[in-house]
Amino acid sequence: MRRFTEMREHVVPRSGTPDPRSGLAALASSIAPGWGHLLIGRDRLGRSMLFIDGLLVVVGLVALLFFQTEILKAWVIPSALLGIFGLNVAALAYRGAATVDSFLSGGHKRGVDWFWGALAGALVIAPHLFVANLALTQRDLINTVFAPSEPVAVPATSTTTTLDPDPTTTAPGSATTSSSSTTTTSTLQPRIWDGRERLNIMLVGSDAGTGRVGTRTDTIILVSLEPETGNVAMFSIPRNLTFAPLPDGMGLWECDCFPDIIAHLWANGEWYPDAFPGPQEPSINALKATLGLIFDLEVHYYAKVDLKGFVGVVDALGGITIDVPVRIVDPIYPHEDGGTEDIVFEPGVQLLDGHRALAYSRIRRNSGDFARMHRQRCVLGALVAQTSALDVLTGFGSLATAVKENVVTDIPIDRVDDFVELLPGVSTSKVASLRITRYNYGLGGNNPGQQRYDLERIRADAKILMADPEAALATLDGDGLDATCAESFD
């Protein structure tokens, strides 16, 4: 108290003349509105403003402690983001008025006062500009990426699928139009998981590289979440899976299947739009339908990210740290820009930027599909586990740009907050995956680049894994998201 009194006597002029150090009072009010008023002798106003400051701090702490989910949900609702923007403007006006009033009340005769006053102004304006930019960027991101309305569901209605042992793949340009299929309209529920035992989302990594005709989906992952427990089953679909089943009325082939590798199915939807009828774009209809039949699940939503988008996301978050188990080499790795490069991963712990993280999860040369899928799971696990709120805030501008330019999804805007509500119950420790490899489920094939799989066994084991993940991992060839990342299957 004595030190405060001495400081106050040093700042407040006893003769009633203007305070020659009013800039310090402004600086104090920029930190805590009201503090500067106490320093220049306006005790009643200063104490009142400090009381308001304390009340706001208490409200903020209570919100952070007991309403974290509600705060997070507000950051994904466009109308709530406008409300946050308005509150931010009000807070700026309050702090700005307190700072300016402190500065003007004390007088400002010397140049040094203007220096401190300018610093105080910067301390007031900068954080509110940051929050305003964050809120507007987030609102633009939500409105750009997410769908305006709920998609119509594509049910996994089983068909009797006869796999033609010698199918003929139709070349682009020679398609015929098939009959339309019957679809079921899903009823909009109060929450996204109401009425659903599981929430199933298809994740697609696409590559429409230079010189390629059509989009190739080398990465296809089905994520199945049980809302009640937070357990997640993750299924990485081998890119060379051939004879994937299709429902009646979809496709061009008598086998009621897609006779090429599943990585090419999306492109066939682009080439033959009439062959894949449904409520959404033909490629989405095709891939949702075939995954629904493989796993006997209704695929509710999808998200597709371009390879360049993955690079941008990892770079925006500062990279990821990976412990590479063995040396991996690809002398002609296809770069995102259409060229090739000689890329090498030596064993050991290393920080990977977006380009190298993509290469690590993408390389197939001198390796195999299962090893590649295994590395993809490890990269996804590292990305989730190593991303902090600070990483997101500091790289949010670049992150938002990468997502807006390279990610599309049919998750509707008014359902994003439901996903946020599910987050507290989900963690990487609750994620289990099934190893769908040719060694475990392969049936052989005539073409080395294609592989027939035992779909009935995959479907049965997937159901076991989803029903009781802990017990299933002990009996099936499965693992947790990061349980075996120290191993190599290359």
> What fraction, in percent, of the residue positions are helical?
40-55%
Q: Characterize the biggest β-sheet.
A: 7 strands, mixed
| Uncertain ranges | 1-17, 158-188
CATH H level, superfamily name of the largest domain = LCP protein
Distance from N terminus to C terminus (CA atoms, Å) equals 69 Å
Task: Output the number of helix runs.
Answer: 18
The shape, in one word, is elongated
Spatial strand order of the main sheet: 11-6-1-2-3-12-15
What's the number of structural domains? 2
Mean pLDDT, rounded to whole units? 82
Q: Give the structural class.
A: alpha+beta
- In the CATH hierarchy, what is the class of the largest domain? Alpha Beta
CATH architecture of the largest domain: 3-Layer(aba) Sandwich
Oligomer: single chain
Radius of gyration: 29 Å
* Strand tally: 15
CATH topology group of the largest domain: Aminopeptidase
Strand content: 15-25%
Care to describe what's here?
The chain has 490 residues and is of the alpha+beta class. The protein has two domains: 2-145, no CATH class; 199-310 and 344-480, Aminopeptidase, CATH 3.40.630.190. It contains 18 helices and 15 strands. The chain has helices at 2-11, 22-31, 35-39, 43-66, 68-74, 78-106, 111-145, 265-271, 282-295, 307-316, 354-362, 369-386, 389-394, 396-406, 416-422, 438-441, 455-467, 469-475, and strands spanning 199-207, 216-225, 232-236, 241-245, 257-261, 301-306, 320-324, 328-334, 340-345, 348-352, 407-409, 431-434, 442-444, 451-453, 478-480. The strands form four sheets. Strands 11-6-1-2-3-12-15 form a seven-stranded mixed β-sheet. α2 (22-31) runs antiparallel to α6 (78-106) and α11 packs antiparallel against α12. The radius of gyration is 29 Å and the shape is elongated.
